[in-house]
Amino acid sequence: MIEEKKKRKSAGGITEKIMPYILFLAAAVSVLTTIGIVLTLIFETFLFFDAVSIKEFFTAKKWYPFSETNGSFGILPLVMGTLKVTVIAAIVAVPIGLASAIYLSEYASDRARRIIKPILEVLAGIPTIVYGFFALTFVTPILREIIPSLEIFNALSPGIVIGIMITPMIASLSEDAMTSVPNAMREGALALGSTKFEVAIKVVLPAAVSGIIASIVLGISRAIGETMIVAVAGGSTPNLEWNLTGSIQTMTAYIVQVSQGDAGYGTTIYYSIYAVGMTLFVFTLVMNLLAQYITRRFREEY
Known about the structure:
The chain is mainly alpha-helical. Helix content is 76%, strand content 1%. It has a two-stranded antiparallel sheet. The radius of gyration is 25 Å and the shape is globular. The N and C termini lie far apart (51 Å).
């Protein structure tokens, strides 16, 4: 028995010594993968800017990479398409997500919360290609009954569906932030004569504002990077107009188009997807840094 205990102790000691190295290796793989992705983007983007000037890339108002006689690489139309879809998605997702979070946090019974929250999480797990066909074959025909001038491929329906897609993220993270507000604050407000709705709006929301804003920013970051929904339902016409009823093209949709074989390897068009990808990476990085700043700046500790 003594020998058996010694063996177990020896095995436990070896595990304690090895585990930190294994965990460090796992963390290092994540960091090295991130560095590899960023370096790939940077190197390939430099190859693109050997052929196209940075000034044209950021200031030209047309994106015609496939034109042999009048080619233009101005990314503004792709940025405009991305912003259109993102703004529509935010208009849909923020009020619905916040209302859902307030209901789950302040009004729903434990049983209702146990039923509704998993359903929201299932909504978040649906493949985005399914959302894309939902936008094209269900949402667009309904919108065309209301707006007859709406084209088959447009900015409105993918924007709405992306808003539906990111609603569970905003609702779930906001509900977590609201639930973490101490009950003593609610009870104090109720003791002073506030109604339940006043407690939710004037006490819980301000107290959880850092988590709520961070959830919104993360949701918008998700909308900016969405690919399949806009590729299926948004079309492939980059334009700089504010029109929401016509075909658009976002940065991610353009990357998909070229990646499907529309351009040969090593051509300027091929390298343009890395320049567009780098622009998209900067967008999402700024949004994530903003979310972290807001979380730290407005965090309330109880």
